[in-house]
Write a structure and sequence with these properties.
- The protein is α+β, with helices and mostly antiparallel strands.
- It has five domains: 96 residues, Orthogonal Bundle (Helix Hairpins); 107 residues, Urease metallochaperone UreE, N-terminal domain (HSP40/DNAj peptide-binding domain); 38 residues, no CATH class; 75 residues, HSP40/DNAj peptide-binding domain (Sandwich); 36 residues, no CATH class.
- The chain contains ten helices and 15 strands.
- The structure holds zinc ion (2 copies).
Length: 377
């Protein structure tokens, strides 16, 4: 006894074609011999469902089946559908292509594709970032072959339509199936789906249409650039495929750390050593900036680590409107390798100068000592 086709697919008599397709697709996916090799029960289930689908998806056959049952659509009679065991020889993809028109990866002829974007990390100095620079970089990339204009065909010749697929990029194979002759469509293997063939390949690119080249590109670094700034060069990336546009080139700036200046935003930070005589008596010192040396006044009685700000000596703003500032931390250094006379003068200085005055202002240590004195009376 043959099972009812609706029961086989698990759908109602009023099911739409979509519902029938969906139900069949699910059963076919779960039971196809590709999925469950050697499973006889699955294979039977697959064949049974395929037969049911062949009938119920055809309005004409469905009408006959609804009216006369299995007798109306006799597969093994003169209808000539043949042995269903053939059917399991087709791949799952073929089955879906037959029924659903390429739902499982039938490829179309490929059109133009945009080339890839490229990223180039460019290391520059603080000065180059601050004041801008022109730099030439060398980038290995694939370029449209100039010899053949990207066609891959030798100059004077043209790609011809593929003889295997007639230029469609796809070949139709007519195969005998339990349902009679069914045409399947595959990507043409002769031309890889491109539809064209090159009879005389360009000798520069060997028919690829692209050549690998080291390309020199002049990069314009704007003044006030900072670490991580990305400069976009439209159309300077990899060449496109089949006449597609080239990708973009992104030059990403990396700024080398400077041995003396530290940059934070548009401000510059640095440390300058001064002598304790300069700190005590005051002086005018030379301070290097990215704009060149400037004079800076150190006032009398300057403490170590004091930070002075020099306005406008920082990094220029990229969008204009002046520069950041420079912050100078002065570090008072203690003299070393003193000779006897120098030591004598310092001892003398020490004798005539109260310790608190020598410290300049009350340090945390002075306060701690006072508190301790208070506490112990
Ligand atoms: Zn070429
Ligand atoms: Zn072809």
């Amino acid at each position: 006894m043959k099972r009812d086709y609706y029961e086989v697919l698990g759908v109602g008599k009023s099911a739409s074609l979509d519902e029938i397709k969906k139900a069949y697709r699910k059963i076919a996916k779960e039971n196809h011999p590709d999925v469950k090799p050697g499973d006889k029960q699955a294979e039977e289930r697959f064949k049974e469902a395929t037969e049911a689908y062949a009938v119920l998806s055809s309005p004409e056959k469905k009408a006959k089946y609804d009216q006369f049952g299995h007798a109306g659509v006799d597969f093994n009679g003169q209808g000539g559908f043949g042995d269903f065991s053939d059917f399991a020889d087709f791949g799952l993809g073929d089955i879906f292509e037959m029924f659903f028109g390429g739902g499982m990866g039938g490829q179309r002829r490929q059109g133009p594709t945009r080339g890839s974007d490229l990223r180039f990390d460019l290391t520059i100095t603080l000065h180059e970032a601050a004041f801008g620079a022109k730099k030439e970089i060398e980038i290995p990339l694939s370029e449209t072959c100039a010899n053949c204009g990207g066609s891959g065909a030798a100059p004077g010749t043209h790609p011809v339509n593929c003889s295997q697929c007639g230029g469609t990029g796809q070949v139709r194979a007519v195969q005998r199936t339990p349902f009679g002759q069914v045409a399947t469509t595959r990507t043409c293997s002769a031309c890889n789906g491109q539809g064209t063939m090159i009879s005389t390949p360009c000798n520069k690119c060997n028919g690829r249409g692209k050549v690998r080249e080291v390309k020199k590109i002049e990069v314009n670094i704007p003044a006030g650039s900072e670490e991580g700034l990305s400069l976009r060069y439209s159309g300077r990336g990899e060449a496109g495929e089949r006449g597609g546009p080239a990708g973009d080139l992104y030059v990403v700036l990396l700024v080398k750390p400077h041995e003396f200046f530290e940059r934070r935003g548009n401000d510059i930070y640095c440390e300058i050593p001064i002598t304790f005589v300069q700190a005590a008596l005051g002086d005018e010192i030379d301070v290097p900036t990215i704009h060149g040396d400037v004079k800076m006044k150190v006032p009398e009685g300057t403490q170590t680590s004091k930070i002075f700000r020099i306005r406008g000596m920082g990094v220029p703003y990229r969008r204009g409107g002046g520069n950041g500032d420079q912050h100078v931390r002065v570090i008072v250094s203690t003299p070393t390798k003193l000779d006897e006379r120098q030591k004598e003068l310092l001892r003398e200085f020490g004798r005539i100068t109260p310790e608190a005055q020598q410290r300049g202002k009350k340090s945390l240590w002075d306060k701690v000592k006072e508190n301790v004195k208070d506490a112990i009376g």
